[in-house]
Automatic annotation (TrEMBL):
Its EC number is 2.5.1.72. Its cofactor is [4Fe-4S] cluster. InterPro entries: NadA, NadA_sf, Quinolinate_synth_A_type3. The gene is nadA. Pfam families: NadA (PF02445). It comes from the Bacteria. Catalyzes the condensation of iminoaspartate with dihydroxyacetone phosphate to form quinolinate. GO terms for biological process: 'de novo' NAD+ biosynthetic process from L-aspartate. It comes from Demequina activiva. The lineage of its organism: Bacteria, Bacillati, Actinomycetota, Actinomycetes, Micrococcales. This is Quinolinate synthase.
Length: 401
């Protein structure tokens, strides 16, 4: 029997990609000039030729979660902190092609000069975590904290995985940006602005509650009871003004849909299956998973830890699957497992594929800039304040995470 799908005629809530009903949710669908077929056997050669034709004019950045087919063309690879620094350190490149997600490309646009053009090969490469905090919700929350009488003792700290508008909010409210490589230093800096970690000042941590909680409790020594979760859909985020007054860390109710899938049972199952296995996870995982692990750190830390590991040692890794597979291939002398029993790619990171990269590069060769990421001037200026505060923080080597 053949089943055909018929689009419901009366369902305004259901948006089908490519129907042009909602330009925002459909960003990335149109590729003017035509997207090459994924089956084109010449894609690798086409990408190579376009990159060679652009020469020094183009600089390609690749986040560790990108597909192998894309990573092979990256001039540099890194975690979001390293890529932000790399973008800022390349003033001579006319085009920065960002193989990563939207918030990373926005940060690159903020950190590069007006003469430089940042391109995201597929506009649909967003981030579900970044989408969990929009600027209107954050402004409302700040007003609620003011009503509760604590905004003047609260420093906003936003994870890099947030929109430029939220970074700008942090810039104009004496806050800072952090990444998973420097969340501890950034949070300490934030508390120092309001009397230190042992005082009564507070941090509003956006948008990843897990990174915020894991850093506050495991690295700064605060208690779990010092943390409250702020749900933007509820008055006072679902807390009483007294609870907000007592809290030291106000955690935005956001999470990563990839790292949120790992469970403590996965850790227990891995230990049971391979006695002596080392459990290595990203701090976007839940507190339960992180406290059950042996090592915790950013993608850059995960890579360095595996590089330094003894041949023959066993590892189970809780982060995105493209990176874990690449690590397993790069270390055939080590026994490397993935901390989940189902496939766990980041679907938006995976949006950047070879056809989109070829399309973006060939368009640049032809003189057409496609998918340019532009952050407006006011947002840039304010967000840059928070990003520069982050870049000025004392550097901590990723191997010390
Ligand atoms: P890092 O690369 O900063 O470790 O972040 C991981 C991530 O989820 C990026 O989206
Ligand atoms: Fe966002 Fe998580 Fe994907 Fe990173 S891995 S881009 S935080 S959804």
């Amino acid at each position: 029997m053949t089943t055909t799908f018929t689009e419901p005629s009366e369902s305004p809530a259901l948006l089908l990609l490519g129907k042009r009903r909602d330009p925002l949710s459909e960003r990335g669908v149109d590729c003017p000039g035509g997207l090459p077929e994924a089956s084109d056997p010449d894609l690798v050669e086409r990408a190579r030729a376009a990159k060679a034709a652009l020469g020094e004019r183009v600089f390609i950045l690749g986040h560790h979660y990108q597909r192998d087919e894309v990573i092979q063309f990256a001039d540099v690879t890194g975690d979001s902190f390293k890529l932000a620094r790399d973008a800022a350190a390349r003033p001579e490149a006319e085009f920065i092609v960002f193989c990563g997600v939207h918030f990373m490309a926005e940060s690159a646009d903020i950190l590069t000069s007006d003469d430089q053009t940042v391109v995201l090969p597929d506009m649909a490469a967003g981030c579900s975590m970044a989408d969990m905090a929009n600027i209107n919700q954050v402004e409302d929350a700040w007003e609620q904290l003011a009503e509760a009488g604590i905004a003047d003792r609260t420093v906003p700290v936003t994870y890099m995985n947030s929109t430029a508008a939220i970074k700008a909010f942090c810039g104009r409210n004496q806050g800072v940006v952090c990444t998973s490589s420097n969340a501890e230093v950034a949070m300490r800096w934030a508390y120092d602005q309001v009397g230190g970690v042992d005082g009564d000042g507070k941090v509003l941590f956006l948008p990843d509650q897990h990174l915020g909680r894991n850093t506050a409790v495991l690295q700064l020594g605060l208690a779990l009871e010092d943390c409250v979760v702020y749900d933007p859909r509820k008055p006072y985020g679902g807390n009483t003004p007294e609870e907000l007054e007592r809290a030291r860390v106000i955690l935005w109710k956001g999470h990563c849909s990839v790292h949120g899938r790992f469970r403590k049972e996965n850790v227990d199952a891995a230990r049971e299956k391979v006695p002596g296995i080392n459990v290595l996870v990203h701090p976007e995982c839940t507190h339960e998973v992180v406290t059950g692990a042996d090592y915790v750190g950013s993608t850059e830390f995960i890579i360095k830890t595996l590089d330094a590991a003894e041949p023959g040692s066993s590892w189970v890794i809780g982060t995105e699957l493209n990176l874990v597979r690449r690590l397993a291939n790069a270390h055939p002398d080590k026994d490397i497992h993935f901390l989940e029993d189902t496939v766990c790619f980041c679907s938006t990171m995976n949006r950047i594929d070879l056809p989109h990269l070829v399309w973006a590069l060939e368009s640049l060769v032809a003189g057409d800039v496609v998918n340019r990421i532009v952050v407006d001037e006011q947002t840039q200026t304010e967000a840059r304040v928070a990003l520069d505060r982050m870049l000025a923080l004392p550097a901590k080597d990723a191997s010390q995470d």
